[in-house]
Design a protein that fits this description.
The strands form two sheets. A five-stranded mixed β-barrel has the order 1-2-3-5-4. Strands 6-7-8-10-9 form a five-stranded mixed β-barrel. The protein is globular, with a radius of gyration of 20 Å. By secondary structure, the chain is mostly beta strands. The longest helix has 9 residues.
Length: 181
């Protein structure tokens, strides 16, 4: 199979694509199969998180390691607005940090919006306000998953991260119970 050379975008082009974060420090814009992915450095990802659809302006490469680099100019569509986080109580509310290290933000939780979670709780948080250049995100806890040491916590976290169904109707449970073992 022959390897074909991918096309490279020139600086100054505005593109749309999917942002793939590889750490809090960098990611790539994926546009199509014909072009090289566009490198997005730590200072250029705006407040985009993994899998967001974004608009990017290509810039002259600053690192010398990538043919095309870019700066996210706006988030067109969010891939997710809920995140599995570790909650920490503060004197006037709390804050939640996503456990996915690709998501680089702190989410402030106003007092009364924490569903009685305490420090160390694994929670699901819905973001209501995305971070600005100088401000953290804001949100509220929608579910307390559990606490360190709880039986099955690791499985519950995986279920929550992948948004797998975990609460089933009584009718479905009766049907499952009736199945032979």
């Amino acid at each position: 199979m022959e390897k074909t050379e991918k096309l490279v975008y020139k600086p100054g082009v505005t593109l749309e694509g999917i942002y793939k974060a590889y750490s809090p420090r960098f990611g790539f814009l994926i546009t199509d199969d014909d072009h090289e992915d566009v490198y997005i450095g730590e200072d250029n990802h705006l407040n985009a998180v993994n899998n967001d659809k974004v608009e990017v302006k290509t810039i002259k490469g600053e690192t010398g390691r990538h043919n095309t680099e870019g700066r996210i100019t706006r988030v067109i569509e969010r891939a997710n607005d809920t995140f599995v986080c570790t909650y920490e109580m503060l004197k006037d509310g709390g804050e939640a940090v996503p456990i996915d290290e690709k998501v680089d933000m702190v989410i402030e939780i106003p007092e009364g919006q924490e569903m009685e979670a305490t420090t160390g709780a694994r929670v699901i948080v819905e973001v209501t306000e995305w971070p600005g250049k100088w401000t953290d995100a804001k949100g509220h806890v929608t579910e307390v998953i559990g606490y360190e040491g709880d039986k099955g916590l690791d499985i519950d976290i995986i279920i929550a991260q992948h948004r797998l169904p975990h609460v089933f109707s009584d009718e479905l449970m009766k049907e499952a119970d009736a199945l032979p073992l």
